[in-house]
């Protein structure tokens, strides 16, 4: 079984940041951070949660200054767990 990288957040067609070249000594995925001068964190709001008040795990899109997404993060079911893809 192979793991495919997340290329877009579920239910979205927004543009993702192009993958930067690998940097020696930099863990895979973190090379995105070397090219950023600004990080915007957008909480993705569920309409079900907004209308019913039923709490769900929060989801976040992390974007650069050009509004291109480079990470997708969500809270897990574990105490204070956040997963970043």
TrEMBL record:
InterPro entries: Scramblase
GO molecular function ontology, one term from the record: phospholipid scramblase activity
Nucleotide-binding found in the keyword field: no
Database matches in Pfam families: Scramblase
Gene Ontology cellular-component annotations: plasma membrane
Keyword Lipid metabolism: no
Stated family: Belongs to the phospholipid scramblase family.
Function description: May mediate accelerated ATP-independent bidirectional transbilayer migration of phospholipids upon binding calcium ions that results in a loss of phospholipid asymmetry in the plasma membrane.
The protein's name: Phospholipid scramblase
Natural source organism: Brachionus plicatilis (Marine rotifer)
Lineage, highest ranks first: Eukaryota, Metazoa, Spiralia, Gnathifera, Rotifera
